[in-house]
Design a protein that fits this description.
196 residues; mainly alpha; Arc Repressor Mutant, subunit A; two-stranded antiparallel sheet; 4 strands; 9% strand; globular; MarR/SlyA-like; WH-like_DNA-bd_sf; DNA-binding transcription factor activity; MarR family transcriptional regulator
């Protein structure tokens, strides 16, 4: 009697670079957890800080779009980051009714003090490869990014922009989850400021 349940694809044929890519993604998550712990923020708040540090001041609506969360969830994120001294709200310079969220200089310096040595270390690894090898590495990584983008698209029958539950946006264990909207496809992968 045969089982009608689908079987998982075999990973035995996966080549070493693909295995190492998975390890890179795992260690990137570990790095982000460590950075979030040092800054006493959860992953959603860290992601918000990354956007503010890398892009500069943003309106709450733009931050909400980039995070893929509702405006109410963004308000909660900004409130938490403000209470910790990581960000501040300030009037928009050209829109009297608008406000911008700005990363504090001290928090930016703390985050970049941890991020930049890691980026410099990763970049220095390329010194061990000649121009042709670097070109091959670049082509490989470009194609990997394309694969991720292709597979990040919603599958047929899955609505875009739907609200889901985001347990990481909640302030701590056991707290109520926060509503989250699907992220914009243009910012879901490439916007992360921590990964070089």
């Amino acid at each position: 009697m045969q089982s009608s349940e689908p079987t998982a694809p075999s990973l035995a044929a996966v080549r070493p670079p693909t295995v190492l890519l998975r390890a890179l993604l795992d260690v990137t998550e570990e790095f982000e957890r460590a950075l979030g712990s040092e800054l006493t923020v959860n992953p959603t708040d860290l992601h918000a800080m990354e956007h503010l540090i890398m892009s500069g001041p943003l309106s709450p609506s733009e931050l909400s779009r980039r995070l893929g969360v509702t405006s109410a969830a963004t308000t909660t994120v900004v409130d938490r980051l403000t209470a910790l001294g990581h960000v501040r709200r300030e009037p928009h310079p050209s829109d009297r009714r608008g406000i911008r969220v700005v990363a504090s200089e001290a928090s930016t310096a703390r985050a970049m003090g941890r991020i930049m040595p890691m980026i410099a270390g990763v970049d220095s690894v390329l010194d061990d490869f000649d121009d042709a090898e670097q070109a091959a590495i670049t082509r490989y990584l470009q194609r990997v990014v394309e694969q991720y983008r292709d597979h990040a698209e919603p599958r047929d029958g899955v609505a875009q922009g739907r609200a889901t539950q985001d347990p990481v946006a909640a302030p701590g264990p056991g707290a109520a989850p926060t509503e989250r909207a699907e992220p914009d496809r243009d910012t879901a992968w490439g916007s992360r400021g921590v990964v070089p």
